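Practice problem: predict the structure.
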Amino acid sequence: MIEQFIDYVLHVDKHLLVFAQNYGTLIYVLLFAIVFCETGLIVTPFLPGDSLLFAVGALAPQGMVRLELVMPLLIAAAIIGDNLNYWIGRKAGGWIVRQRWFKQDYMSKTEAFFTKHGGKAIVLARFAPIIRTFAPFTAGFGRMNYGRFLTFSVSGAFLWVLSFCLAGYFLGQIPWIKSNLKVVFLLIIVVSLMPIVIEFFKHRSAGKESASEGSDDKV
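Answer:
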């Protein structure tokens, strides 16, 4: 199962191409569903985001999709997903966070991200896997003003979708990148995960310092 998922993420371009060849315009439905679920449901933070958008842009010159259609569609999916997640957090967040299946670590990382970046975390979270999924839920759970949330959500969706799709479109036509998309997807994943890794080590370091100070006080 895990191997299949990794294969899908690293070869998302090939899987999308095969799907488009077999099902034609249903590719738009698939792309909308993936982006909507990744941003709107806290149980699917593992779905591809950044690499998917880059792949869409890279494959557009081959006629797989039309950018003028798919980009507005994916922006809409990101905004609708974000808003669903916000209201789930606002209306049912208390019940959800008490469930055993809920990832408390993800919630803690997202809360730390909010503490550091404030409201603009909604925009920045678009570029950070996992946090991208939990940020709107956390905003709703914390009862962030909806008008403020919506402003950040819409602007973040535009920046996220346009930047990765257009980067894929223009960079994907460079011969080396076109023949090494697997390497590019790996780099995208690594760069996207860097903020989470940095925050993890900062949190871990701070925990060790607190524990050390506590032991010194006892002495």
